[in-house]
Design brief:
Blueprint: H1 2-23, E1 25-27, E2 31-36, E3 41-46, H2 58-62, H3 71-74, E4 78-83, E5 86-94, E6 102-105, E7 114-117, E8 128-133, E9 142-149, E10 155-168, E11 172-177, E12 180-183, E13 191-194, E14 198-209, E15 213-218, E16 221-223, E17 227-233, E18 243-253, E19 263-268, E20 276-280, E21 282-285, E22 290-294, E23 299-301, E24 306-313, E25 320-325, E26 328-332, E27 335-337, E28 342-349, E29 359-365, E30 385-390, E31 392-406, H4 415-418, H5 439-444, H6 447-450, E32 458-459, E33 465-466, E34 478-479, E35 482-486, E36 490-500, E37 505-510, E38 513-515, E39 518-520, E40 523-525, E41 529-532, E42 541-549, E43 552-555, E44 559-569, E45 575-579, E46 585-594, E47 599-606, E48 609-612, E49 619-621, E50 624-629, E51 639-646, E52 649-650, E53 655-661, E54 669-676, E55 681-686, E56 696-703, E57 706-713, E58 717-720, E59 728-737, E60 740-741, E61 745-750, H7 778-819, H8 827-834
Parallel strand pairs: 1-10, 2-10, 13-21, 23-31, 35-44, 45-53
Antiparallel strand pairs: 3-8, 4-5, 4-9, 5-6, 7-8, 9-10, 10-14, 11-12, 11-14, 14-18, 15-16, 15-19, 17-18, 19-20, 22-24, 24-28, 25-26, 25-29, 27-28, 29-30, 31-36, 32-33, 34-35, 36-41, 37-38, 37-42, 39-40, 40-41, 42-43, 42-44, 44-46, 46-50, 47-48, 47-51, 49-50, 51-52, 51-53, 54-55, 55-58, 56-57, ...
Length: 840
């Protein structure tokens, strides 16, 4: 009875419970899914309907066909996803119409895209659907609920908590040095220390969710940090948001094994990723026992290569050996370390003269110390060791030449630079003539010239002409190797020599020619200097000095000495130029001056007075000026005057070119054979008027009306060569200049027989000289003949001059009368029209 009663009651309770469950919902306990930020998250949803549905007898699920039910009744009809904080569904699935299932999602509700994956079949195990969120973000974290509705089964809910984990940043290890925290560079030693040094380290990391844990490790052993703090601060100054920063501080003593074992800071906040580690490498030092330079204590010649060595013993790790010579630091050379721990560096050293008196030094430093600006402390002084050896360098002399000005003594003559030139016949700086100045000159100048432009021509740097008065100041002084000094001043040329061994001799040269020691030529030549007490123009030259020692000889820089002086004519005498009428003549004026002329002025001095040459007719380049002039009448002949203008003023005395009327020359006079040989005939004449131009003498030799040979000479003595012996020839002579040829003069002459040594005749007839009774008197006879001949020549020349003086003026006067125009032009037309006529 009791057992029957109990079983009946239990069945009753079960039926009631099943009925309630079929009418309501079944809720699963919540799950937890942990995902890294940025990865995919799969949220599970149970899609198995609850058992005990009255519409489906239990025997249907427990029979042998339990896994082949009606798919339509066991598959989910609706799947709805919810998230805390969002009222509407974030995803839904509608499977009520088989074959036409529908998916829908609110894409803007979460950070990544949503995708629902259903079980392949209703009887698959486990019966789970998954909602996949791609690229999860921190904002996706929260509680998710999945509701599944079936055809005839209660709805089923699945709760899942999504946790988003963000890994921390790579730990940043810093070392306290020089009063501040210095960050260690990855992969290189961050601190150069010795054994026993106590270091203060700090490790920090940012971001990370949840907050990471920092731990210190050394060789697999965890070290206990002294302090860990979590703060919020700005990681970068330009950022506005603050981040959580976790810091851990540690003090550690350096051990010998730390040279190979780094101290590591580790940050971790999840098992999904391995911990992040940052090692701190230390350079543990062991100073060298000694450093020594070998092979540099001998005398060396500049320019010759030598090999010197630096040896270091006892350093750990092997040191870096660097060289320095004087001010040249950190000269690196290859080095090697043997098994005994000795490090050797070999330097191929080529001495220079600038290294004389310096030391060559080898320094041992910790390896890569120069690149470790983040060292926790300076390299210990006891670690750095060096050795230094003084250098004894032999080199050729180094020579520098300069000049110093010496003022002339009060008694020295300096008239060339202090005396002012006389006033010019006309002022180049004035456009109009002043009637109160120099009335005599005014009477000589035509009215047109008084108002003409200034006849001073300057040239700019671009070659164009300008007008001015040459008022530039003199610039004297040293510019590079050019020295300009005034004439009359004194100068000392000093030769500075630096040599090892000292120079035993210094030689001097001027313009490439050697200067002998002592006093001469206005200068005093010593060993180390040249003194010029009073500078003259001839002292302007290029000077050099050469020093000699056992290593060789060296020449100084060339010093160009310029003597500042006024302009003077290059030609010391008056230049006489013959020019025919109506012929253009280029007249050149060349001066010597320093500084170079800045302008030139020209004038014509004739019977009409002093006429100024227009500036457009004047050309010049450097110290040479030229004009083109064409005379038309007798009054156009005279003297062309040229003045150069420099920074010192106008030239004192002008250069003079005297123009004389030119014509064809007169024929040579009193021509006679002065010497006859078997193969030559020499004719001596008296030169007649040359026509005002240089003349040349010419002669042709004819035989039987046929020209045999011809000869030319610049003197009045002409010789014909390659003639036949004992033959009578016809000789034709004349003179010529650039204006034309003279009339011709004819005479006859015979060559000497082939057995006669010489023959002379003054009248064209040969006289033979042979051996005979009068052989002893022959020298006396020859002397008498020579004296008579000389007297005849002198008388001929005198008669010719007298004849020229009488006939030339008459001839020129006649020509002038023939060529003179009926009416003479005005002064300005005559003068100005003839200057530069060739240009028209």
């Amino acid at each position: 009875m009791w057992i029957t009663y109990v079983m009946t009651w239990f069945l009753y309770i079960t039926i009631i419970f099943n009925s309630v469950c079929q009418a309501g919902e079944v809720t699963q306990g919540h799950n937890e899914v942990v995902v890294l930020e940025g990865q995919e998250a799969d949220l599970p949803c149970v899609t198995t309907p609850t058992q005990g549905n009255a519409k489906f007898p239990r025997s249907r699920y427990t029979s042998t066909h339990a896994h082949t039910p009606d798919h339509h009744h066991q598959r989910p009809q609706l799947i709805l996803w919810y998230r805390d904080g969002i009222r509407s569904t974030i995803y839904s699935y509608d499977g009520r119409d088989p074959g036409r299932e529908r998916h829908w999602s609110e894409r803007r509700s979460l950070g990544g895209a949503l995708e629902l994956t259903l079980p392949p079949t209703p009887h698959s195990r486990p019966q789970l659907a998954f909602l996949r969120i791609s690229r999860v973000h921190q904002s996706d974290e929260g509680l998710y609920r999945c509701r599944v509705d079936f055809y005839r089964a209660p709805s089923r809910n699945t709760n899942t908590k999504l946790v988003i984990v963000a890994p921390p940043s790579t730990p940043r290890v810093e070392v306290w040095a020089s009063g501040r925290w210095l960050e260690a560079a990855p992969g290189t030693p961050a601190a150069t220390v010795e054994v026993g040094t106590r270091l203060r380290l700090r490790c920090s990391t940012t971001a990370g969710r949840p907050a990471p844990t920092l731990t210190w490790w050394r060789g697999g052993e965890q070290l206990l940090e002294e302090k860990t703090e979590v703060t919020k601060e700005k990681v970068m100054e330009e950022e506005e948001e603050e981040e959580v920063v976790v810091r851990s501080t540690l003090h550690v003593s350096v051990r010998p094994e730390d040279a190979h074992t780094p101290v590591v800071c580790q940050a971790s906040n999840t098992h999904l990723t391995p911990p992040l580690r940052t090692p701190l490498h230390l350079l543990v030092l062991s100073s060298p026992s000694w450093v020594r330079v070998v092979g540099a204590d001998k005398a060396m010649s500049a320019g010759v290569s030598y090999t010197v060595e630096c040896r270091s013993v006892g350093a750990r790790p092997p040191p870096v050996l660097s060289w320095s010579v004087g001010d040249h630091q950190h000269i690196h050379a290859s080095s090697t370390t043997n098994a005994a721990g000795e490090t050797v560096s070999r330097l191929v050293y080529k001495p220079e003269a600038a290294h004389a008196g310096s030391h060559i030094t080898c320094t041992a430093r910790p390896p890569d110390h120069a690149r470790h600006a983040l060292s926790s402390q300076p390299t210990p002084t006891m670690w750095v060791k060096s050795d230094s050896v003084p250098l004894n360098i032999m080199y050729k002399p180094e020579v520098q030449l300069d000049a110093q000005r010496v003022r002339a003594s009060p008694g020295a003559s300096n008239t060339t630079t202090t005396k002012l030139p006389p006033p010019p016949p006309f002022s180049p700086s004035l456009h109009n003539n002043n009637n109160n100045n120099n009335n005599n000159n005014n009477n000589l100048l035509p009215a047109q010239v008084h108002t003409s432009k200034v006849a001073v021509v300057k040239k700019r740097n671009d070659g164009t002409k300008t007008r001015g008065d040459g008022g530039d100041k003199v610039k004297a002084g040293k510019v590079d190797d050019d020295v300009s000094l005034m004439e009359g001043e004194g100068a000392v040329l000093q030769c500075h020599v630096r040599a090892n061994p000292p120079a035993y001799h210094v030689s001097w040269s001027r313009d490439g020619s050697p200067l002998s020691p002592g006093v001469g030529g206005g200068l005093v030549v010593g060993n180390m200097s040249v003194v010029l007490p009073t500078l003259a123009r001839k002292d302007a030259a290029t000077y050099t000095c050469t020093a000699h020692n056992a290593e060789g000889s060296s020449r100084s820089n060339p010093l160009h000495l310029h003597v500042i002086h006024g302009a003077e004519c290059m030609r010391g005498t008056v230049q006489v130029l013959g020019v025919p009428r109506h012929h253009a003549l280029n007249v050149t004026c060349q001066v010597t001056a320093y500084p170079l002329p800045t302008a030139f002025s020209w004038a014509l001095k004739s019977s009409r007075g002093l006429l100024q040459v227009p500036e457009e007719m004047i050309n010049f380049e450097g110290v040479v000026s030229w004009i083109s002039y064409t005379p038309r009448a007798a009054v156009d002949y005279g003297e062309l005057l040229c003045w150069a203008h420099t920074a010192l003023g106008r030239q004192r005395e002008p250069c003079v070119a005297r123009l004389v009327a030119a014509d064809k020359p007169d024929p040579p006079e009193r021509c006679a054979v002065s010497r006859a040989t078997p193969h030559t005939l020499t004719v001596l004449c008296t030169a007649a008027h040359d026509g005002g131009l240089p003349q040349t003498f010419l002669m042709t030799v004819s035989l039987s009306g046929k020209e045999v040979t011809n000869s030319t000479s610049v003197t009045s003595e002409i010789t014909a060569y390659d003639l036949e012996p004992d033959t009578r020839y016809r000789l034709t002579l004349w003179s010529a200049n650039t204006h034309g040829n003279s009339r011709r003069t004819t005479l006859h002459g015979s060559t000497a027989p082939s057995n006669t040594s010489t023959s002379s005749s003054m009248n064209g007839h040969a006289s033979n000289t042979t051996k005979g009774p009068l052989a002893m008197l022959w020298p006396s006879l020859v002397a008498v003949v020579v004296v008579v001949t000389v007297l005849g020549v002198v008388m001929g020349v005198v008669l010719g001059v007298l004849t020229q003086r009488i006939s030339v003026p008459h001839r020129f006067s006649q020509e002038t009368e023939d060529e003179e125009e009926p009416q003479a032009p005005s002064h300005s037309r005559v003068n100005m029209g003839r200057l530069g006529e060739s240009h028209r």
